[in-house]
Amino acid sequence: MNFMEFFWILQVLIGIGLLVSAIVAIRFKNLIMAVIAMAVFSLILSLEFYVLQAPDVAIAEAGVGAGLTTAMYLLAIKNTTDEEVIE
Amino acid sequence: MTTTIIKTTTKILAPLILVFGSYIILHGHLTPGGGFQGGAVFASGLALLIVANKYDAVKSLFEKAPLSVFESIGALGFLGMACLGFAGYTFFKNIIANSGFPLFGGKTPTGINPGYLNTGGTLPYMNIFVGIKVLAGLTSIVLVFFLIMRRERDEW
What we know:
The complex is a heterodimer of chains A (87) and B (156). Chain A contains three helices and no strands. Chain A is an all-alpha fold. The chains are: A mainly alpha (87), B mainly alpha (156). Chain A: The chain crosses the membrane at residues 6-26, 31-51, 57-77.
């Protein structure tokens, strides 16, 4: 397996992972599980940035997307309720 | 949220994350990353510490930590380092590089080299100031989210 085949296989896998984690984040009724799915989405997106040779953006995405926004969402959910309310 | 799993994980992971954030800030002119990325990593480590500790401990600790002062120091220090370029040159002129100043003023080697920390002139100073500003701002956001919590019981 040469480099380009590995590159394209990785691209397809990352695309499928992004799609699945995004759909899961929308579909889950439990908000904590949805937030964890968003953290997974952010982590896979940072892997994609790293593969596309932008390690700066990858570090920023991993730090802000997977670390800080997850902590903020979890604290906000802890202050309210963790079930989706449909009026 | 202060269960045994989170406490133990935080004890092991938080020092590593803080050291990694400091490394990214300090080596901003040599390796990928810089002030903003290192500050975000450092702030996520502090957010882990905030989430894993009790309400009273966090409140008593961050009453003594001057986060707004840190943010002002970051902005004013960045502008001050930029204004150093007015010494005969223009705004943002890098006057410390290759000047022999003992801190970050070493001579930059040409060609392929492993990367020497004592080079770069004003860039490491600017990275440090931006890192201080970013970590103070992001930490204060998480801290406000934590401190306005009304329910203090540990439910999950």
